[in-house]
Amino acid sequence: MHDIVLVGAGRIGRIHARNAALNPRLRLAGIVDPMEGAAQALAAEWNTTVTTLDDALDDPAVAGVVIASSTDTHLEYSLRAAAAGKAVFCEKPIDQDLARARSAAAGLSDARLLLAFNRRFDPNFQALKARLDSGAVGPLESLQITSNDPSPPPPSYVAISGGLFKDMAIHDFDMARWLLGEEPVEVFASGSCLVDPEIGKLGDVDTARTLLRTASGKLCVISNSRRSGFGYDQRIEAYASAGMVRADNVTESTVQVWGEGGASADRFQNFFLDRYAEAYRREMDHFADILDGAPPSVGYADGVAALALAEAAAESARSGKVARP
Amino acid sequence: MHDIVLVGAGRIGRIHARNAALNPRLRLAGIVDPMEGAAQALAAEWNTTVTTLDDALDDPAVAGVVIASSTDTHLEYSLRAAAAGKAVFCEKPIDQDLARARSAAAGLSDARLLLAFNRRFDPNFQALKARLDSGAVGPLESLQITSNDPSPPPPSYVAISGGLFKDMAIHDFDMARWLLGEEPVEVFASGSCLVDPEIGKLGDVDTARTLLRTASGKLCVISNSRRSGFGYDQRIEAYASAGMVRADNVTESTVQVWGEGGASADRFQNFFLDRYAEAYRREMDHFADILDGAPPSVGYADGVAALALAEAAAESARSGKVARP
Amino acid sequence: MHDIVLVGAGRIGRIHARNAALNPRLRLAGIVDPMEGAAQALAAEWNTTVTTLDDALDDPAVAGVVIASSTDTHLEYSLRAAAAGKAVFCEKPIDQDLARARSAAAGLSDARLLLAFNRRFDPNFQALKARLDSGAVGPLESLQITSNDPSPPPPSYVAISGGLFKDMAIHDFDMARWLLGEEPVEVFASGSCLVDPEIGKLGDVDTARTLLRTASGKLCVISNSRRSGFGYDQRIEAYASAGMVRADNVTESTVQVWGEGGASADRFQNFFLDRYAEAYRREMDHFADILDGAPPSVGYADGVAALALAEAAAESARSGKVARP
Amino acid sequence: MHDIVLVGAGRIGRIHARNAALNPRLRLAGIVDPMEGAAQALAAEWNTTVTTLDDALDDPAVAGVVIASSTDTHLEYSLRAAAAGKAVFCEKPIDQDLARARSAAAGLSDARLLLAFNRRFDPNFQALKARLDSGAVGPLESLQITSNDPSPPPPSYVAISGGLFKDMAIHDFDMARWLLGEEPVEVFASGSCLVDPEIGKLGDVDTARTLLRTASGKLCVISNSRRSGFGYDQRIEAYASAGMVRADNVTESTVQVWGEGGASADRFQNFFLDRYAEAYRREMDHFADILDGAPPSVGYADGVAALALAEAAAESARSGKVARP
């Protein structure tokens, strides 16, 4: 049983609080949030107390810190927690600025830091990777990652999001690296504003295609849109020498209606917290592994590498030229 | 190249005319129909002539006769064609009366007679049987045959149809025998009038379930309705000791629409002539095999056996008791 | 927050303990089990204490009792708990003996008793019922319930199980009643021993088909086997006047492998505790509703009615005749 | 009934011969092929005669010419047939050389020329386009075209093929134009040799991704490989503002096997002549429309435009830069 403290009582923080509280290997020892009401409500819900980051880092009983605060604090809090000898669970992205993220290497490259790319913990994508790793379809050759949100965020969110590539596609860059088993060396991206003109006014795109190429010539296409029109569209197709493995979207139930128009399946899951509920549970469980001594399966260097790809994609979309991460 | 004559220029006769005319091993040498206009139109369409059954049977150049006339003529014409030494392609059913069908044994049991249970020639059901015969899933144990029409026929058709069990389920009794590899020895059926009260007034049912049991205890359920509400519903599930093989419905295309309500497939094929177009082609090709010397894969005895099951089912539905074919 | 006590620390009891402990509206106030070790281990796991049924019924703080002990105690414990004024969550079946179950009516018909037919709480079957209830496909006409276990239980279990109809099909009889909205008045069943000869030696069957018929002529087929060969096979097809609603099996993930042999989906869920994990959670949540004052959605009378159908089916399978529940 | 002459008795010529011969609106009046044996065999099969292109063009009874000869003759024969006043059915591509193809504009832009991009006539892709055109999912925004062969051709074929982009992807460029409803103005392509090193030695690629962008910002990705490992992989996903329409691969039957490993569908169709059998039939039927006076739905200009995109893609794959068609 490891004591951990959660920093951030917002939407994603509440998910982590629940998963930590229900994990038999973890004890949720405190909640930190500048919004006192939010911290207190969450602490009450899970029968723990409100604390501060300083107190938590000073407390030798606290073994780990979960950082689910705003993006601009991820790097600083991670560095402080690592310096205090705590294991770190840090929400993605590690930072929005690649240079700053890279400069933290001294403080973080040896840290027991789990960078919470939740999709690596999704049962469907894990099953896909297991099939590939089993060798059943031969070596991977190319990859199609489809990652579309159900509907666009408000422009106010877009304005501080870091842009589609760093905010949304960063998950897909991490998936690409995870599955390709090789670093992309060339990035070409093309983006458009087709969904919401307000997004374009903010200098961002809402629809994009990104083409990654590794040194050995493996190819990966990432398709992103801020709006699918039908739900949370999260799919992967992995072409290998002897076949293809794919992970499909998740529906709300197995029910179908067969009528004059044909067979209609149930709706696709629409909300990322539903779609990835099990992934969030599993990544928290992996944090317990780390507190037990296991190395993080995804860490600081992965956060930097995904960010580098995101910056390269954004640069390519601007310049119309191939960029290198 | 074998000369054959078609008797019957109605809906199903036109299908057989086309398949015979386009089969490189057959020559459609004549059309017989009491409705002169129908015979002439069909003969013109396929560049052949109108003839009579007498002339066709007398003509030594005619090797085979396709009987697609009204049901009450099937038995008589088959007997005459067999007596004249012709190979016979006879539409199902062999007759509506079991005693009469059985009494024809002397004239037909050795005949080169193909009884046209078209579903045996459907590529999907053939693929299902091939999987079972391959042994990949072990011996068959039980069977679910679903066979629902898109929408009910007019009461005028029902009145002369012989009733749901002889008219519609007779195909399913044949499929059951074909797949079970063993004769059903007990039949229990329950029928209702849920679709069209006019059908009930005619003493018939429009919805039924029939349970067949073989001597070794294999079980088969046949589900019938005159109206599915969504298309032509023709499915089979075959449970074997190491798994299950199933054949599903056919859609009009592979297109799906993914929208807010979920994924919608294209419509199911609705019309039996579309659904079984390839089956009709293949059964005509099998008639060419027979003319080349092959034994019929399904013949007179199969027609009688299916009719016996249909009569037993109708009797069981009336009496509420198990019947024996 | 309602205090409840769990009776029975076996496999299903442990599921209920977990769901009660994690439900924010319930407090697991004690565990009862004659096997002291099992009770203590489960109490320790969920931070509660071991108690006795007598003490629990005497304790005014205990609002509800969850009965997950052996089947032969269900009726007695339910009566005692009801007499003590407790709300009752009773595992299925209410009893194996119909006469005995009926004779308990005086003590139980007004009880706040939830009979735990878990499938009514499965999200897939609930979604199916919601579609039917919405009227989108018109009134229900016939039903196909498929309910096959992955592999047969040991003969020692079969010997005390009450037989396939009472042990396994009882769930399906409840589903049939729930969905038909009308009581079956005729039952015909046919059973075979095709899976394990030891089951036959015990006088039981391992494969069965049961045909139910309501007064208005609605038809329902239940297909049961102790072994599917491919996983936990739990499906429903509900035919209505304007189409069909179906709930399909659940796979372990959305992953497919596309290879030379075609597309292969992931395995079907194999274990009932996985397949119905959410159903168990929801039925415990419904017990909290009852403790809050809601009427049970499924209770004593439903347990008796399902048992009556199971007895009728067993009788029909023996006699070869239609039976009435 | 229009008389047409077929030029080319090779594999694709034989398909066109069959479809012309079986089309009630066409009469196959002659076969032209420098390989006399091939011409005679095909003429015999369909009961027609061997002729020469000169004779055919001189014969006023000949209304149309089907050009299914080698690619290097397409342009010349089309020009000659058009000059002779014949309607032209020309196999794709119009030529391998863009400049030459463009220079033929004077002779062909007004010709009644059907450029045989067969996929436009596939029932699945037609159904997809019909859904888009119906407006049911709003305006198209982006497109994913997947087009992989089952297995690579021999290097000898690759050597004369014109390269992956002109030989294989040209179909996809035409599909993109057909569906986007707008011309792509930017092309970025990346190609690799991952399947067969011999293809690389010939200076070609066997795996590629191409990204097209239209003036309004619509995006299209084309995925190509010379080897899928599982069959003929021909799929489209069309994202629109209110959902997505997709056309999936075609399986050999609807049969599934459910076993311990899960559900396995039947194999995917493997051979392009099977997959597009109906498309070939429909495009020949459209040639009959043209002979009846209808304008070609796809013609010379489409052939040039697709070729321009193929050249741009090949150039981009060489240079690593965006190219313009």
Automatic annotation (TrEMBL), chains A, B, C, D:
Belongs to the Gfo/Idh/MocA family. Residues 4-106 form the Gfo/Idh/MocA-like oxidoreductase N-terminal domain. InterPro entries: Gfo/Idh/MocA-like_OxRdtase_N, GFO_IDH_MocA-like_dom, Myo_inos_IolG, NAD(P)-bd_dom_sf. Keywords: Oxidoreductase. Residues 125-245 form the GFO/IDH/MocA-like oxidoreductase domain. This is Inositol 2-dehydrogenase.
